[in-house]
Design a protein that fits this description.
Helices cover 73% and strands 0% of the residues. It is mainly α and 231 residues long. The protein has a domain of 154 residues. The longest helix has 40 residues. It is globular. The N and C termini lie far apart (45 Å).
């Protein structure tokens, strides 16, 4: 949690202009249109027709990311402590990558891009993401990559791999898709942002795996040497 607190403070130090952030957003929209995957407005409009669902997703946008990720880390540490360093270092690596991209490539989220998206979290969940208080704590133009989705992907894959109960594995497998719906329907991210979040987690995992291997091999060799010396 200390790492995440530092991440939020650093993330909030971005000073990108609205015009630059929106230029990057329009680039993403043009790319998605060229790939025929620009369907975020359709998703949000469909969800908005369902009673109470926008409010539910607005709350989920905040709760799942913080409580879900924290609960996941506690579970891994207690139930699968041998896997915890790899998971922790994956998050550290992905978060580091994200911080660099937030500075180099600021992007306005759909709700701030003047593209016809509603701010579901502020309007339905009654949490004003654009308030002066929250704006002082986070960078509103830190949309790419989406660590909401990146973390959810890590949670889903890890729990689906390690959990013993089938029902838990099924829920874990669906979790990233649920988070994708949440971030898109609330007007906070494009599909492109989610893909970038998945890529950040993937690279973070590769870095963490290399680090884990580099630290594990010397320990194995030392243990083997001790066995030989005492035999």
């Amino acid at each position: 949690m200390a790492l995440y607190a530092i991440y939020e403070v650093v993330r909030g130090q971005g000073h990108a202009t609205v015009s630059v952030a929106r230029e990057h957003t329009h680039w993403i929209v043009d790319l998605e249109r060229s790939l025929h995957v620009f369907g975020e407005r359709t998703v949000q409009h469909a969800v908005d027709t369902l009673p109470a669902v926008p409010t539910l997703l607005g709350v989920a946008y905040i709760v799942l990311h913080f409580a879900g990720t924290t609960g996941f880390l506690v579970w891994v540490y207690r139930a699968h402590r041998e896997r915890f360093p790899l998971v922790r270092n994956t998050i550290i690596g992905a978060t580091g990558i994200a911080l660099v991209l937030y500075v180099l490539f600021p992007v306005a989220p759909p709700r701030l891009a003047q593209l016809g998206f509603a701010d579901t979290v502020s309007h339905d969940a009654k949490v004003n993401l654009s308030s002066s208080l929250l704006s002082s704590l986070y960078n509103p133009f830190a949309a790419v990559p989406s660590l909401h989705f990146g973390y959810a992907l890590l949670v889903g894959v890890t729990v689906a791999t390690l959990a013993h109960r089938r029902s838990v594995r099924v829920v874990a497998a669906v979790y990233p898709a649920v988070m994708l719906l949440v971030i898109v329907a609330t007007g906070n991210h494009f599909f492109f942002d989610a893909a970038a979040g998945a890529l950040a987690i993937g690279i973070g995992y590769l870095i963490a795996s290399r680090f884990d291997y580099a630290t594990r091999v010397p320990r194995t060799r030392t243990a083997a040497g001790s066995v030989v010396a005492t035999s």
